[in-house]
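Practice problem 4.
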């Protein structure tokens, strides 16, 4: 019998969930890529797995935002937003503490939740998860951009058909026509082609490496040796960075836990669950986001105290230190800290009071009221020594967690990390949550077009990369270069290359007017290879040199 499908709200979105099982502890399953909690009951292998697991735990299933029976969205969602979906479902089912069972990408958000809300997590169990989904020298197991592009192309042209290469996910079931037919249907019912492409691009941006050290709950990581989708080295990499984590390697090459040697997987999970410590065990340390701000003026101007308190408390923050021109506050999650910081920046800007803020993450007591540590003092001092008026900067870890649609991030400067002295990149962050439709087209393009909106967002995300051009834009949009040329020309009257340069110049012009940087700094910030080339392009577009704009203002 299929459990009753129910709904709860996560923000303004409806999230579908089910509850079943008779075990003494709660287990929340966080699915990978896409899911459909209605259609999963049509797969005997998956049903058998969960019914057996339901003997040792009360199972909570849900479809994450944008998939299955939950509200469909066309925008990218951040890991933080997906984490809030877990909390909403737990609240709706009166689950005070639960085991999180994350599969594939679902393991990434489960890891973040475990570090952020450890007192709501009994344990973390994962199967076939990754820490990054984009190749780099320090993480060489992730797919390259070319490999990801092939996935984008597959989704665009063959979504839900027999040409999805699903056999690579479950080689042991490749000749099982009934199972493979169900799997294709499961993906089709889990997301539309557009939603699937958006989710895949979101996954490409996942990077949880910086938060792994903060996971302190009991952890079981499972993976098959020859998993094609997620390399075994990735599981070992993650296990090495979570203190006390148990890593179990199974024979086989299936990425789906309910195919292949499922009984071994099930028994490992059961044993781990039965051996968990008492549920009264409380984790006093958790991942916290710190916001500090400073008024940068020699005049007798200070912080707007009433505005400060309202902005912090409205976003659920707690003020730790407040002086005439300086404050420090803590938040549960980065997005709320950024929103509070932007609100304060805008208020002080209106009053012509130069203000700057920095945001970083740390491990702290759950009450968020502990005094500042040596590391806090180091981070605040280091960032304040480099920060410029009227801007907010965040660390790389925060940028990775919030890659999505809420904020714009551009490289700003770097500091050395506390004690390890590794290079930590800082990013200038601005709000783009209110730019849908109305401000997505600030360049005189009167015709609304969702494809153009996507293109503009992609260009915005690569403004500081002087290697970004038509070829990379083609890969990011997932369409052919010919189609890209035609659609952009129809809507803007410009070629893709001209559009990229046009947007860079307009952004640079705004920065010159605001006097946020020198001409040379602005040139590099917006992707120009040299100040002289920037000046030449600027003069051609606006009939005035950048230095003349600065002098005029």
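Answer key:
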């Amino acid at each position: 019998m299929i459990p009753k499908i129910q709904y709860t709200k996560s923000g303004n979105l409806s999230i579908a969930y089910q509850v079943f099982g008779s075990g003494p502890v709660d287990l929340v399953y966080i699915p990978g890529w896409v899911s459909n909690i209605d259609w999963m009951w049509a797969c005997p292998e998956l049903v058998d797995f969960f019914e057996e697991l339901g003997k040792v735990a009360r199972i909570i299933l849900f479809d994450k935002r944008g998939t299955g029976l939950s509200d469909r969205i066309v925008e990218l969602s951040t890991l933080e937003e997906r984490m809030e979906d877990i909390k909403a479902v737990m609240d709706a089912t009166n689950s005070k503490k639960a085991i999180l069972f994350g599969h594939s990408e679902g393991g990434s958000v489960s890891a973040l939740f475990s570090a952020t809300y450890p007192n709501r997590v009994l344990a973390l169990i994962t199967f076939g998860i990754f820490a990054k989904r984009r190749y780099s020298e320090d993480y060489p197991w992730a797919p390259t951009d070319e490999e990801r592009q092939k996935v984008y192309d597959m989704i665009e042209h063959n979504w839900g058909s027999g040409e999805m290469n699903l056999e690579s996910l479950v080689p042991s079931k490749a000749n099982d026509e009934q199972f493979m037919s169900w799997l294709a249907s499961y993906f089709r019912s889990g997301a539309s082609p557009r939603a699937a492409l958006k989710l895949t691009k979101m996954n490409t941006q996942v990077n949880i490496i910086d938060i792994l050290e903060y996971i302190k709950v009991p952890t079981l990581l499972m993976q098959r040796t020859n998993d094609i989708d997620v390399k075994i080295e990735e599981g070992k990499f993650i296990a090495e960075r979570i203190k006390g984590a148990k890593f179990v390697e199974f024979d086989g090459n299936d990425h789906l836990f309910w195919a292949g040697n499922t009984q071994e997987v099930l028994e490992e999970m059961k044993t781990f669950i039965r051996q968990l410590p008492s549920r009264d065990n409380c984790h006093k340390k958790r991942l916290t986001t710190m916001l500090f701000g400073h008024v940068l003026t020699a005049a007798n101007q200070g912080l707007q105290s009433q505005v400060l308190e309202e902005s912090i408390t409205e976003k659920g923050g707690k003020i730790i230190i407040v002086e005439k021109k300086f404050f420090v506050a803590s938040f549960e999650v980065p997005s709320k800290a950024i929103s509070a910081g932007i609100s304060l920046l805008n208020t002080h800007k209106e009053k012509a009071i130069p203000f700057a803020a920095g945001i970083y993450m740390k491990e702290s007591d759950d009450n968020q009221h502990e005094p500042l540590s040596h590391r806090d003092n180091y981070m605040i001092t280091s960032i304040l020594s480099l920060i410029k008026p009227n801007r907010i900067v965040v660390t790389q870890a925060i940028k990775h967690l919030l890659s999505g649609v809420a904020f714009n991030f551009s490289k700003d400067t770097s500091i050395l990390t506390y004690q390890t002295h590794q290079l930590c990149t800082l990013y200038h962050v601005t709000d783009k949550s209110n730019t849908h439709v109305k401000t997505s087209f600030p360049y005189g393009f009167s015709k609304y077009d969702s494809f153009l909106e996507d293109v503009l967002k992609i260009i915005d995300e690569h403004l500081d990369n002087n290697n970004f051009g038509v070829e990379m834009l083609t890969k990011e949009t997932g369409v052919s270069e010919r189609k890209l040329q035609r659609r952009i020309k129809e809507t803007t009257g410009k070629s893709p290359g001209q559009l990229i340069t046009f947007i860079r110049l307009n952004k640079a012009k705004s920065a010159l007017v605001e006097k946020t940087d020198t001409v040379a700094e602005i040139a590099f910030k917006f992707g120009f290879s040299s100040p002289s080339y920037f000046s030449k392009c600027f003069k051609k577009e606006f009939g005035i040199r950048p230095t003349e704009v600065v002098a005029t203002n």
